[in-house]
Amino acid sequence: ITNNNGTFNKELKDFAIEDSSVITRVFLTDKTGRKVDVVKIAPGNWSLNKNYHARNEVVEVLLKTLLNIEVKQPVPKAAHNNVVKNLASTGVKVEVYASSYRINLFGKIKLFPYEKCIKTFYVGGATQDNMGTYMLMENSSVPFITHIPGFRGYLSTRFSSVEDDWRDPTIFDQKLDEIKSVTLKNNSEPNQSFTIVNNQNRTFNLVSLIDGKTLTNYDTSKVIEYMASFGDIKFEALLSELNKNKKDSIIKSKPFHILSLTDSKGKVHTMKTFHKRSNPGEADELDRPVFFDRDRLYALINDDKDFVLIQFYVCDKILRPLNYFSNNSLTSKNIK
Fold first, then answer.
1. Least confident segment among 8-17, 174-183, 237-246, 321-330
2. Full DSSP string of 96-115
3. Is the dihedral of CA 198, 199, 205, 211 positive or negative?
4. What is this structure's pTM?
């Protein structure tokens, strides 16, 4: 019962990492040239391909997978050749790196740290019953069926080589004291455009963009609430695969909003929104035709590099009109 010996060497079937906390980097690539390079910056903070923040919850799933994955059985001989062929052509190569030390005396004296590759293997597709995943260690010709005990499903999607699958959907993530100013230009209602300057002492300047006047009679609590709303603004989906002609047509149209946030370090973060057409024949509760989607907008973010889909439910709180800050006498009439 306790005999763990088998006909296969342990290193040819041992896909798991004993301690996921030592992992500093995971590199995934496939035959099409797609690459995902996830690098640890700090606990719970990972970079993606040196350009973006990685989605923390997706990285956590990967780390737990590397910790808990087990070999279920070798691939049956009848399927061996096909599995190896598919792994070679469509599999994702996974390289796992960890921190190590050139001098490590009894785990107490650690000198000369460096990063080394501790595991390399290939991840293929699912088994016929979708309860296992084909994997192959580097320098081995023996593929295995792997799984996580207690988990019903396959693991291939956790090793995606598609960059978009790992992207952190954050648009804005600034606290109140990290914001220098916010400017919202509303092109459909120019009189509702404004700038709020944070004086860093719980006082603000609220300026109407249409005439450049600084407004004094406004609801301070609403301004504070607004400026504190930029702490967790995320997009719903990246639209990298959207038809290029359609995308170009939308981007060349006049934006609905142009929102610019300048942080305390002087960096400007901009989001441009665009109307999204409603579904053909859509009508409201009074059976009137609806021309634009009432739940979502298109948006350009990250210096106009990324075209995304955002929800009114999430972004309404940072797309307020100027009269939202009204304090009785401040109305749309006296800001025209």
1. 8-17
2. EEEEEEEEEETTTEEEEEEE
3. negative
4. 0.80
Closest CA relative to residue 170, chosen from 233, 262, 261: 233
Q: What is the CA radius of gyration of the chain?
A: 27
Query: Is 331:320 a contact under the CB 8 Å cutoff?
Result: no
Asked if 104 and 40 count as a contact pair (C-beta separation under 8 A), the reply is no
CA distance 49 to 227: 31
Rounded Cα distance between 193 and 303, Å, is: 21
Q: How far apart are CA 173 and CA 227, in angstroms?
A: 11
Beta carbons of 311 and 171 less than 8 angstroms apart: no
pLDDT, tens digit, 9 for 90 and up, residues 216-263:
889 999 999 999 999 999 999 999 889 999 999 999 999 999 999 999
**pLDDT given for residue 1 in this prediction:** 41
**Rounded to an integer, what distance in angstroms lies between the CA atom of residue 28 and that of residue 166?**
11
- Contacting residues for 216 by C-beta, under 8 A, at least 6 apart: none
Spatial distance between the Cα atoms of 53 and 45, rounded to a whole number of angstroms: 8
Label residue 307 left, alpha or beta by phi (over 0 means left) and psi (-120 to 50 means alpha).
beta
How many whole angstroms separate alpha carbon 180 and alpha carbon 266? 8
Please tell me what DSSP assigns to residue 298: E
pLDDT digits (tens, 9 = 90+) for 290-301: 788 989 999 999
Residue 314 CA to residue 153 CA, distance in Å, equals: 32
Could you give the 3-state DSSP secondary structure of residue 120?
strand
Looking only at Cα atoms, what is the longest distance across the chain? 85
Yes or no: say if 169 and 234 are a contact pair by the CB < 8 Å rule: yes
**CA-to-CA distance for 67 and 15, rounded, in angstroms?**
9
Smallest CA-to-CA distance from 162 within 22, 297, 58 is with 58
Burial class (CB in 10 A: 0-12, 13-18, 19+), 294: exposed
On whether the CB atoms of residues 101 and 107 are closer than 8 A, the answer is no
CA distance 159 to 62: 7
With DSSP H G I counted as helix, E B as strand and the rest as coil, what are the percentages for the chain, rounded to 5?
A: 25, 40, 35
